């Protein structure tokens, strides 16, 4: 065990300042004890007795100093990573951003992506897999993914591309089976993916990037450890290394409070993404339309069942046993006997939705409402399809219709909040989301949406509070609880993504 040296307050501060200057890393008050231990460990390892001498070694620009920085950085950085981390951002990349880049590069057939702060390689390799999946004739393309990180040990491990099961949290067995070979208890990545990725030891704050003309930078779960000036410096470097119209994706809320006037802000339901602005071009805030696939069906959940159950609806049909509705989990309103044709219509409508034939689905839902004007599932689907088509006024009318049936139903409130958000009515969105929290204090989706809005508004304090609240709830919920507004991810899966 190394002897724990005691650092004077001044010296502690000097070490922290030097580390911040050289790496951007902030030593938080809660980490200060362990920080002193780490300094002790390193002094012990290189046989230094005086902390002042160790400080001078770090401050110098010798080869010995460079090597020691490597050892110290390995103790100071958090290298947590896993494949396809943050499902929502992965969905955004797979369905919007990468297809856009691929389309733009059809003639040139060259794509260059960088994972900055790539740790042990899970993130750049996930990007390489996505590119190969999206480009059937990928062999005719020049696809380059760069992984850069300050930590030499992480880079060495990334280059080996052998992973333990822990790196595959939430990854489907199909992907694992397709791209990895099991060797004992570990998984070796296929050479055709491995060879697409080049790793470089790069300190984001100090070093020049060894490349340029990048189409997409991903820098996630890195800036959370930096102070604001270091973030500004790195974002500026990223800007210059990006192609015109190139993208920057960071972790949620990691750029709050930054001046990002060089970028357009593209606001998707899953995440904000920044796009390099051409010189002289006006900055734009671009909101992407809602998509039905992204908007999963929230349940019409009575908050306090005893008081808030909607009145039973009498349907003038021959009573038949009710089959469970496949689309939305039934609430008592849906357990009413219904005409078989309603079930059939619902089934057909659902098939149309799966085929993305929304107009045809709309007609089926309308027919259901002709039979039963209080059919909440049908009305909700119509509202959702209209919202997806940008017909917000029509969507709002259907939400209001639903709220007349059950004024405390969460789903129409949530859809109204999403529409308000999409149309820039942030005050209204906040009001609705707070109302949802009042009705259902465990609404993780409402807390996460509020996080997103406060982040957009630069209100970091509130954004962090909302984010913390959503984590607290997720930790409290039974792990298997589905979070319907988030694609039915379970509470534990969502927690993994967010933390
Ligand atoms: C928590 S990991 C994130 C890995 C990956 N981006 C992800 O989200 O799964 C943070 C990484 O940032 C790296 N890092 C921290 N400071 C850095 C710096 N100044 N330059 C380059 N990388 C840095 C760390 O070494 C670590 O590997």
From TrEMBL:
SMART domains: MeTrc, TPR. This is protein-glutamate O-methyltransferase. It catalyses: L-glutamyl-[protein] + S-adenosyl-L-methionine = [protein]-L-glutamate 5-O-methyl ester + S-adenosyl-L-homocysteine. The lineage of its organism: Bacteria, Bacillati, Cyanobacteriota, Cyanophyceae, Oscillatoriophycideae. InterPro entries: Bact_Chemotaxis_MeTrfase, CheR_C, CheR_MeTrfase, CheR_N_sf, SAM-dependent_MTases_sf, TPR-like_helical_dom_sf, TPR_rpt. It comes from Crocosphaera chwakensis CCY0110. Its EC number is 2.1.1.80. Keywords: Methyltransferase, S-adenosyl-L-methionine, TPR repeat, Transferase. Transmembrane segments: none annotated. Residues 1-279 form the CheR-type methyltransferase domain.
